[in-house]
Write a structure and sequence with these properties.
Distance between the termini: 63 Å
Order of helices and strands: HEEHHHHHHH
Radius of gyration: 22 Å
Low-confidence stretches: none
Helix content: over 70%
Largest sheet: 2 strands, antiparallel
Number of strands: 2
Length: about 260
């Protein structure tokens, strides 16, 4: 029901589901639901993997331990194939990104009205449940990767080496340094933007499709369309987590290469 007591229209329903539970104003406005779910899912990931690591033994592993070992080996194999340097941070960071982004994406599989209905019964008017459909989360993660890239670029190559990399390629001539600098700076800045917006765009579109199905179609048709889309969406959320992880490894690998 709308605030006026009139039935909620399709437009109202869509706008309602795309509005975050917010606190504060202006620059210091926080999306409380997004932050809450991202933190809870991050803690859940750490607790699950820590509990498995603590109980791991050389005997016959349990099913969940096997599942965790498969994920760890998959991420470790991806890191070994892409990153050829020596860095203790890359593998744990890649595992964290893959599992954390997957868990945030997986929230999109939960029926669209389930958690918001529970939240509304507790007095919360707005409540979004997919953290990765919030551009603030995806761009924050992308900027974190970007700052790590800059840190290792300066650490491995030095200030002079990093500046030379920006000014002496793709055209290896001092006279073309200004052109090289413009091209390389644009390429450098485009990395976090594309990394964050790619994840956000895919997850926002997936969430919007679920909302449109629920808002515009009769109840019995919703299940006919939502179930196949949810099954297909599992592939999308896994692929997006994998892409974010792989691009992170690639960017850090480039930063750690000393030409």
């Amino acid at each position: 029901m709308a605030a006026t007591g009139e039935p909620m229209t399709s437009s109202d329903y869509i706008a309602h589901h795309l509005h975050n539970l917010q606190m504060g104003s202006g620059f210091w406005q926080f999306n409380v639901d997004t932050l809450g779910f991202s933190i809870v899912l991050g803690v859940l990931f750490l607790w699950l993997f820590y509990s498995v690591a603590k109980k791991a033994s050389t005997g016959v592993p349990g099913k969940f331990q096997c599942f965790v070992e498969i994920i760890v080996e998959f991420v470790d194999g991806s890191v070994n194939d892409i990153f050829h340097g020596r860095n203790k941070l890359i593998a744990p960071l890649s595992l964290t990104i893959f599992v954390w982004v997957f868990l945030m994406n997986f929230m999109d599989i939960i029926p669209i009205d389930f958690i918001p209905y529970v939240a509304e019964s507790l007095g919360l008017k707005y409540f979004r449940v997919v953290p990765s459909a919030d551009v603030n989360i995806t761009m924050s993660m992308a900027l974190s990767v970007f700052f790590l890239t800059l840190f290792y670029s300066f650490k491995v190559k030095g200030v002079g080496g990093f500046i030379k990399e920006l000014t002496m390629q793709p055209f290896n001539h001092w006279a073309l340094s200004p052109i090289n600098l413009i091209l390389e700076v644009i390429s450098l800045l485009s990395k976090p933007i594309s990394l964050g917006l790619r994840l956000f765009g895919n997850m926002y579109a997936g969430e919007l499709i679920f909302i449109l199905i629920a808002a515009l179609l009769p109840f019995w048709i919703q299940w006919i369309l939502s179930v196949p889309w949810a099954i297909f969406h599992i592939l999308i959320i896994t692929l997006q987590a994998f892409i974010f992880m792989v691009l992170t490894i690639v960017y850090l690998s480039q930063a750690c290469e000393d030409h």
